[in-house]
């Protein structure tokens, strides 16, 4: 992970995908196909990206992990599998999401699992049921692009303990500009066709993804937003040339 010192180029902390969960229950509609759609949209590479962030979480100190926008539970399940294979510090994992239909699938996936992994319904914008300074590690994967970033970052900062770590896996910018332009052209041309077939014509499922990929800030800008929210030791790791990046920040030990 490299340290980031460049100031943010924008103060726009809006929802990159212009998504409103109260206005469109798209994730409820596609919940049964969501995991397959992740494979379709990313050509399966999302599995490597998720394994990487799960590995970083497992190796970070702290007992309590809160995963926001967990969907069907991919990240928490990967964390649990890694913990079962490697001798790391025991962790209590909370998987959370605003969509009950997605959480129902997560519950089925962890049926009979360890009690150290629990599932709770939370809106990442408003974690009023989660006490301040109570979480060691906060993670969110591919959810930030459909959230109001300023609110989500403020809540993540509040619930983290001093010294707690924030992780975010999200769309980014390929570091070579011509390659990024080609990638966006591919997404604009191929993704709607593939996704239209995969979702039975549910345009929301790929409209939000496309808009979020286009509008989510680049790595330096989002790192600046983390710093603006109060995090220190901010940095990011590019994956697959920068198609996505894992961002990291630490809540100061003294405020």
Task: Walk me through what this model shows.
The protein is an alpha/beta fold. The protein has one domain (2-250): Vaccinia Virus protein VP39 (Rossmann fold). Helices cover 41% and strands 20% of the residues. It has nine helices and eight strands. The protein has helices spanning 26-29, 34-42, 46-59, 74-85, 100-109, 149-159, 177-199, 204-215, 219-228, and strands at 2-3, 64-68, 92-97, 117-121, 135-141, 160-171, 232-239, 244-250. An eight-stranded mixed sheet has the order 1-7-8-6-5-2-3-4, sandwiched between helices. Helix 6 (149-159) links the parallel strand 5 (135-141) and strand 6. The chain starts with a strand and ends in a 5-residue tail after the last strand. Residues 2-12 have low confidence and may be disordered.
How would you describe this structure in keywords?
disordered N terminus; 255 residues; alpha/beta
Order of helices and strands: EHHHEHEHEEHEHHHEE
**pLDDT average, as an integer?**
88
Unreliable runs: 2-12
Q: Can you count the helices?
A: 9
Shape: globular
CATH fold call: Rossmann fold
Structural topology:
Elements: E1 2-3, H1 26-29, H2 34-42, H3 46-59, E2 64-68, H4 74-85, E3 92-97, H5 100-109, E4 117-121, E5 135-141, H6 149-159, E6 160-171, H7 177-199, H8 204-215, H9 219-228, E7 232-239, E8 244-250
Parallel strand pairs: 2-3, 2-5, 3-4, 5-6
Antiparallel strand pairs: 1-7, 6-8, 7-8
Helix pairs in contact: 3-4, 7-8
